[in-house]
Write a structure and sequence with these properties.
about 35% helix; globular; about 150 residues; Alpha-Beta Plaits; alpha+beta; 5 helices; four-stranded antiparallel beta sheet
C-alpha cells in the first residue's frame, strides 16, 4: 500500500476568455465537474469561478496525473455544455490551464480564495490574476502565447 496526497489548485478559462458560463447556471456546471472528479476517485474541496474561468481545488489519487485529470474535466464538461441549452454561447475551453500544488495546510486558504471569486474579480481581472499565479509560482510567461487561443 502506498500513501500519497496531491493537492492541486487548477485554473482554466473559456475559449478566448469569453464570459460564456451564465451565473444562473454556474452551479450546474460545478456539480457536473464534481461528478467527473468523483468518477476519477478524486476528492474535490471547492469549485468556483466566474463567467470566463473555473477554479478547482482537488486531491488526485496517485494513479491519476494532473494533465489527464484536466483533460478529462475539460473534454467531458465541454461536450456536456455544448449539448446543454443553459450554455448557448459556450464554444469550448481555452487551450491552456494552470495547476499549482499545495499542502493540506493550505486547504482553507485556497478554498476561501475560490469562494471569494466574485468579490476578488471586482478589483482584479482574470488576466491579472492568472499572470500573478504564474509569476508567484516561478513560471516564465511567453507573451506570444499568454491567454491566446487563435
Amino acid at each position: 500500500m502506498s500513501y500519497t496526497t496531491s493537492y492541486y489548485h487548477i485554473v482554466f478559462r473559456t475559449y478566448c476568455s469569453e464570459p460564456t458560463i451564465p451565473v444562473d447556471h454556474e452551479r450546474e456546471l460545478y456539480a457536473y465537474i464534481y461528478g467527473i472528479a468523483k468518477n476519477l476517485h478524486c476528492q474535490t474541496y471547492r469549485i468556483g469561478g466566474m463567467p470566463d474561468h473555473v477554479h478547482i481545488f482537488v486531491s488526485l489519487p496517485s494513479t491519476l496525473p494532473l494533465a489527464e485529470f484536466v483533460q478529462r474535466v475539460k473534454t467531458d464538461s465541454s461536450k456536456w455544455m455544448k449539448a446543454n441549452p443553459n450554455y448557448p454561447q459556450f464554444k469550448g475551453w481555452g487551450r491552456e490551464y494552470a495547476g499549482f500544488s499545495y499542502s493540506l495546510q493550505d486547504k482553507d486558504k485556497i478554498v476561501g480564495y475560490i469562494m471569494r471569486q466574485k468579490e476578488h474579480h471586482r478589483r482584479v481581472s482574470f488576466a491579472e490574476e492568472y499572470r500573478a499565479f504564474l509569476e508567484e509560482n516561478g513560471i516564465m510567461i511567453n507573451g506570444q502565447y499568454f491567454l491566446k487561443d487563435v
